[in-house]
Write a structure and sequence with these properties.
By secondary structure, this protein is of the alpha+beta class. The protein has helices at residues 21-31, 37-46, 98-112, 127-135; strands at 11-15, 52-59, 62-73, 80-89, 115-120. It is built from four helices and five strands; from the N terminus they run E-H-H-E-E-E-H-E-H.
Length: 152
Amino acid sequence: MNPFDSQPKSIRIRPALTSDAPALALLLGELGYPAVDDQVRHRLEIHRAPNSIILVVESDERLVALLSLHLIPLMHADGFLGRVTSLVVSESNRRQGFGRLLVSAAEEYAWSNGCSRMEITSGDHRPDTHVFYEHLGYQVDCRRFIRNRPMV
């Protein structure tokens, strides 16, 4: 048996397509944000704005990871802030470098589109993920305050 038989034959990073909605819904569910295909299709349409991009990793013609990136214009400084608001690799494909590839692609996109810094949001309940981000050179920088919209 060849040890490389289990390795992906093709890996491609590309922008998400509307037809990716079913696979993206599954990935978002793994991240803890259940969604149905129609919700994801709608979100993909919203993110077609010039300052947003959703990237996916396709491995052996299957979507195994996604990352959403938003470029936010800064008022207090020149340029943009690149904010990663979601990053998920399917559970069966973790620790294979797909997350690292996506973050690298997002950074390249951000730097080439005028970002002066990158930010990744991640909940306190994800300590393993925080270690991953720290290994990529990210560090805890500030405190975030959130207020949810009141229920009517």
